[in-house]
Amino acid sequence: MVGQIIAAGGGGFSAITNDLALERYILGQSKNSQSPKICLLATATGDSDSYIEKFYRAFNSLNCRPIHVPLFKQTPNLESTLLAQDVIYIGGGNTKSMLAVWREWGVPDILRQAWSSGIILSGSSAGAICWFQQGITDAWANRLEVMDCLGWFPGSCCPHYDAEPERQPTYHRFLKTGEVKPGYGIPEWSALHFKGDQVFKAISSRADTTVYQVTIENGLIKEIPLKMEKIS
After folding, report:
1. What is the pLDDT of residues 44-74, one digit of tens each?
2. For 59-150, where are the E strands, in sequence order?
């Protein structure tokens, strides 16, 4: 079975605006079309109560059965809980801290099992870059850095590509210095849908956003716009 991952650049249920197109799209990929079970891992926020509340507020309004799994409070059996889901959603926040906690609890291996068994994996920001070899992260105060991630997908990922003015030039600078591999710039309200480790499609709920494949050739940055599918 070909695993699927939907990696969003930002926006979604945690944003102020009430645009749940990405959430509906994610749920729509589940093989359980009646009332899919979706589980939030909010590790990157330290299991923030306000973030978890936003998740429930959004997904309780949709046709699904949402739960969350804490890693900073009493934690249930991760393998049996996560592998019983139809969809797993990885929230945004501090990617470096998230991956450190995940590794302590053995989460990457469980997510790999979920992926190979047909459970839809998804996420935004930290929940997007974590799948790549490298990501551009704001885990450190006052600066963006390159960090190594899980390495399921080749290359790198830069979320919030259009929303934070320092993101694009910083990504370009790291490409020029060779500190980061070529990859993708994903703006707010947009996502890459992977089947296996290949891009299946690029989607967005906004007509004016574009996901870019970002490469470097002879010292020059090339941004290749991907064909976008509008979702609602």
Report:
1. 999 999 999 999 999 999 999 999 999 999 8
2. 65-68, 87-90, 120-124, 132-137, 145-148
Provide the whole-model pTM. 0.95
Residue 232: pLDDT over 80? yes
Query: Residues 14, 122, 125, 205: which is the catalytic one?
Result: 125
pLDDT of residue 42: 98
C-beta of residue 62 within 8 angstroms of C-beta of residue 38: no
- Helices first, then strands: H and E counts in the chain: 7, 14
Phi, psi of 127 (to 5 degrees): -75, 0
Mean pLDDT confidence for 98-122: 98
> 126: domain CATH number?
3.40.50.880
Instruction: Look at strands 120-124 and 4-8 and give their pairing.
Output: parallel
pLDDT at residue 164 is higher than 90 = no
Encoded tokens for 215:
């490469």
71 lies in which domain range?
4-230
Q: Which amino acid is at 153?
A: F
Any catalytic annotation for residue 160? yes
Q: What's the domain count of the chain?
A: 1
User: Per the residue annotation, which of 160, 190, 193, 205 is the catalytic one?
Assistant: 160
Best CA proximity match to 150, nearest among 107, 117, 193 = 107
